[in-house]
Amino acid sequence: MGRAFVYVILGGGVAAGYAALEFVKRGISPGELCIISEEPVVPYERPALSKGFLLPEDPARLPSFHTCVGANQERLTPKWYKEHGIEMVLSTRVKSADVRRKTLLTSTGETISYRILIVATGARALRLEEFGVNGSDAPNVCYLRNLADATRLVEVMQSNTGGSAVVIGGGYIGMECAASLVINKINVTMVFPEAHCMARLFTPQISNYYEEFYKSKGVNFVKGTVLTSFEMDSTGKVVAVRLKDENVLSADMVVVGIGIRPNTSLFEGQLTIEKGGIKVNGRMQSSNSSVYAVGDVATFPVKLFGESRRLEHVDSARKAARHVVAAILEPDKTGDFDYLPFFYSRVFSCSWQFYGDNVGEVLHFGDYTSGNTFGAYWISKGRLVGSFLEGGTKEEYEAIARATRLKAKIEDPAEVERLGLGFATAI
Ligand code: FDA
Ligand code: NAD
């Protein structure tokens, strides 16, 4: 059995939702577009899962955070897809793809063919087993990638109020989950191998601010080490975490956030893979002209840096999704994707934004003691290439984004350091 569509989006996450809206805005006919997703629900704003969804009071629940509310656009409910004649194939995993024949084989045994395919399969959370540690399936060990994970995390959190959690990993998931656990009255110890948190992005000075802030909320940090094994009780529940430095941390629950791998496996050997993702050009087109890729799974040319990157952030997924639809439906009017990388996070009362690239020399500015507003600029070859700001206003964030996009010239770093945020707002 099989069905045929003009456009198929493989994956039903952030990029799929934003692409669907763009298809409808630009005009497609009912029955032309199909979205296939392993998840049981239509696309939603994944960032909500580590923030609003985990709140003990008035938590975010679907349908409130379906795409595209995250960009202040229409909220696409199941009814919306139906009304626009978009075929949603949910709870269905694509098992194999044949780009030569332009077909996808699903877990239900159906063959779905396409004229144009957009791969938006995102990524999967890395498992501890991949680092030689067993125990991921224990009932109180949680990962966080999708709605099912988040629902389970809430259940485990609620049954451990007043207890203790060990958070493995000092990246985005670790930091955001640690804050949510504290808000849920759980005592948190964070364990990660680096010397400071968010090591992929933050400077030690920036990290230090957040670590002190977290400590003031009761979070304990164990840095420069990794876990080696779990201690379990007779029911298979984790009761303690053994570390390489020989410390043992007792735990009522564990949250693991140790990075992701893009879901490229269906296309390995069929499409060019680069830097772990499906390599695409500025139109998000892969090495096969009928296949496009966007979101966490795509390695695309970042014009501003003059090189291809894979970005694991929601703004990139949203904007690339809009761009790919424009490139498909109006190829003559659509140029290359010109994207300024943008990352952000919100934890406790903190809120930061980052634009550009974190390479080169760093200048810190602002008040790192009170934490009201502080930031950093990254400078390379006499130009501003990256900006970070905590506690900014909308206008201030816009200013650092603009200055970074313009690659503002920096002749006197000491003067820029003195001007701080004023350097960007004056541009
Ligand atoms: P996404 O993961 O959203 O969607 C992929 C979809 O493909 C899923 O529905 C998956 O089930 C499906 N799929 C995969 N393989 C399939 C197959 N073989 N068959 C069928 N379906 C398949 N970023 C940010 O900038 N700010 C933030 O605050 C956050 N916060 C955040 C919190 C949490 C908990 C996570 C996990 C991630 C974030 N992110 C984030 C990252 C951001 O959510 C991420 O970059 C985007 O969701 C990427 O969108 P994609 O559409 O590429 O993948
Ligand atoms: P990450 O790459 O941000 O951090 C991974 C962390 O894992 C590292 O900082 C390191 O401390 C730790 N680590 C690596 N190997 C380890 C090991 N063997 N033992 C212990 N710790 C180890 O990845 P993540 O935090 O898992 O986030 C997953 C994805 O979700 C990323 O794509 C991220 O961009 C996305 N996300 C983004 C946001 C945001 O942008 N605000 C929020 C949540 C999630």
From TrEMBL:
Cofactor: FAD
MF term (GO), any: monodehydroascorbate reductase (NADH) activity
Domain Monodehydroascorbate reductase 3-like C-terminal residue range list: 340-424
Gene Ontology cellular component list: cytoplasm
Entry EC no(s): 1.6.5.4
FAD/NAD(P)-binding domain: residues covered: 7-320
Annotated InterPro entries: FAD-oxidoreductase/Apoptosis, FAD/NAD-bd_sf, FAD/NAD-binding_dom, FAD/NAD-linked_Rdtase_dimer_sf, MDHAR3-like_C
A Pfam family the protein falls into: Pyr_redox_2
Protein name listed in UniProt: monodehydroascorbate reductase (NADH)
